[in-house]
Design goal:
The chain is mainly beta. The chain has two domains: 39-201, no CATH class; 223-389, no CATH class. It contains three helices and 20 strands.
Amino acid sequence: MPTSENFDQLLKRFGSASFSAEPDSWDTNPDTENPDANETSRYEYGVPVQTVDAFLRLPSPVVSSWCSDANPAGFLVNRATKCIRSVSVEKCDTIQALSMLFYINSSILAVPKSSQTVNITVRSVAVQSLNGMRTLPHGSDVLRLPMILDALCINIVLGVSYHIMYTDAGEIIEAAAAFVLGAINKETLSIQQSFEISFTQVNTEPVPLSGNPGYVVGLPVRAGLRPQRSGIIQNTNKYSQLTILQSTSSQDCLAAQGARAPVLFGFNMISGCTLRITAATKCQPLTQTLLDLLKGQNFPEYVASFGNSQAQDVLDWVPITHLHTSEQSSCQIPVSLEVEVKWTKYGSLVNPQARIVNVTAAITTTTLKQLPSGRERTIPITSSVIFTDISSPAEPGYKAWPTINAKLPFDFFFPFV
C-alpha cells in the first residue's frame, strides 16, 4: 500500500512502462539471511497468484493495445482487460495464447511457496461463429484445441473468465475458468481477446446483516434455503443470495451467463440481454438455459423479514411465492423474471423499521415458433425487481378527555341517614 514514506521507492520500481512481475521474495533458493523464506504463508491483497511454473496470467495491454502475457493476476483484485493479439490461420495451432491449455495447464498454489496445488477446472465453453453468434456446445469434449479446417482456424480463445474461491485465511481452495472460443479466416490479421478474474470468499462468519433490526436502503436483501425443513441456510456471499441478471456491454445472453447483481433493498432495478435464435435451436435445452440465466444458481426459497433475522428463527423468514405466466403452446420459453418485494414500516412512528412481508417471483414465457432454415430471430430477455411500500398511512391520534368519577363516602350523611 503506497504511503508518504515508500512512495518514491515504489515509483522508482514500478513507474516505468514495464517492470518485472516477480518480486524478489519469489527466489526459491535458500537464503541464509532469511531462514523463514520457505515457510508457508498466506495470500494478501495484491500479491500475484502463484502457479507451479510462475504466476496466473491475466493478459493485458501494457504500453500499446497489444497483449502482454507477463501480467500477473493480483489476489483479491477483480479485473477485466481487453487487448489485441496478432494471428494467422497458418500458425494458429502453434500460438500458445490461442489455446485453452495455455490458461489451465498450470496448477495454482493454494498459498505462496507451498506444495499444495489447486487445479483450474473448465466451468463452461461457449463457441462464437464468424458472425458473432454464440452457442453452448453439447458433449463431453470440454477441452477444444485450435484446429485448421479448410480456410478457417477454429477453437481459438477469444475470452477467459477466471473465478477464484478462497478462505478467510488467505488460502485458495478452488479455481474455475469459462472460455469463449471463436474462428478466424485468412483475412483476419488480429483478434481482440478479453480476460476477467473475480474472487469469492467462502465460509464467512458471521453473516453480514442488512440492518438492525429493519432493513437499510442500499444493503442486500438477505435470502436463503431451508433444506429438510430445519433452519435457514444462508450463503455468506451476497452474489449467491437474491440476485438478478446483470447486464453486460455486449447485451449477449450467452456472454452474460454467471454475471449476477445483488438485489439491494429499496432499489428498483431492471436488466436484460438479447438472445439470437436460429432454426436449429431446440426448445428443451433453450428453456433450461434461459431459466438458469434468469434465476441463477440455487435460487433462494426464503427472504429475511428483518435485516438482522437469525437463521434459526424460521418464523422471521418470508417464503418466496412463485408465479408462472404462460400461453397454451407446445414450446414455451421463459423471457422475463419479475421480483416484487412488499415491505412495511414497523414499530415506532418516530423511528420506523423496514420489514419485508411478501416476496413474489413471476416467470413470463412466450411461444417459440419454428423458424425457416437460414433465418434468425432476436428475443429480449429481462429481469427486474420492484419494492412496494404497503404501510398504512400514519394518522394522528388523541387521548380521550379525562372524566370525573366522583363518589361520596358511604358514611357521608351519618348520623342523619
